[in-house]
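Final report, Chapter 2: Outcomes

The project's central promise was a pipeline that accepts a single protein chain and returns its three-dimensional structure in a standardized token representation, suitable for archiving and comparison. That pipeline is now operational. To close this chapter, we reproduce one record exactly as it appears in the project archive, with the input sequence first and the structure output second.
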Amino acid sequence: MKFAIWGTTAPREGRSHHELYREHLDEIALAEALGFDHYWIYEHHLQPSAPMPAPNLLLAAAAQRTSRIRLGNMVNVVSFRNPLLLAEEAALLDSFTNGRLDLGLGRGSNLTEYRTFGVAMDRSRAIFEESVGVIRRILADENFDHAGQFFRLEKRAPLSPTLVQKPHPPIYVTAASQESLRWAAERDLPAVQLDSPIDECRRDIEFYRSIQIASGHAPVPRFCLTREVYIAETDERAKRDAYPYLLQYWGLWGRYTQFLAEAGAPGSFETWYRRAPRLAAMSFDDLIENGLVLAGSPETVARKIAEHRKALDLATLVGVFQLGSMPHEMVTKSLTAFAEQVMPRVRAAEKANAA
């Protein structure tokens, strides 16, 4: 199992945006030094609580600060972009990173952003499937004409720059509904889930695996699961320190519930929005008890991850270390403790179980 970080960019008290982005670049460099496998960020538009409208620019900057860790935008919201531009950006980032790009593609789930761009959210799945199909053909460097429902283009020349990774950078997609899981499994694409409870994630992995095998692919782990993480010397200290920041971060599930109440979610987002009220209603202790938040001492968090490993065949565990406006110093301290005291325990347990 690999370890990734999903870097959130909520504003921090007393920090300008310039300082905020510099701190995130420092955190990415630290993550590499500590031995994490991936660092992923997100994309949001006109969202003051998540100022990251052009994540691929941050990846380009991070590429100059790192040499080993894999970098990716999880996800590029394809509903708001031309697929040719996305494919060309991916090729350039693959060159900048010297073959360390993870290409995340998804629909996004923020109704406000769809309204901002004037895109009908109920068309997002059709846009996604068409866009990803076009992007994959461009990355394969085919010459072709495309006249689809949403995009038209003529590719008559080689993709430039050429890709470092062959046949192309690994493509990750977000998948919560059975329809999305089936689509990803048929294509053997890694699937990313945010804050999925263990029982739901286990069900989804089993469904994905059945389609993966039926589609002729090897039954290898493809699931990536996010968990909010905070490490301190004791469980009590971790809970006390993380609590006010987690309240800020976990409020996103309350906002999704509000979107549902105000306008209703398109049918293709039913799974996502059905989960939102359940998560928003959980208490802080419930979140920790159910393993949705990994807050505690290194020993406690390592034990919780072992429970995840026993229940779930995960490819990657994705930690969210900045909770809300958590200061840079708290994030780096927790990040370091996780890498130095939790990851070795998890690795040792994996070796023992494999013996």
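Archive annotation: The chain has one domain: 82-354.
This record, like all others produced under the grant, will remain available to the consortium after the project formally closes.
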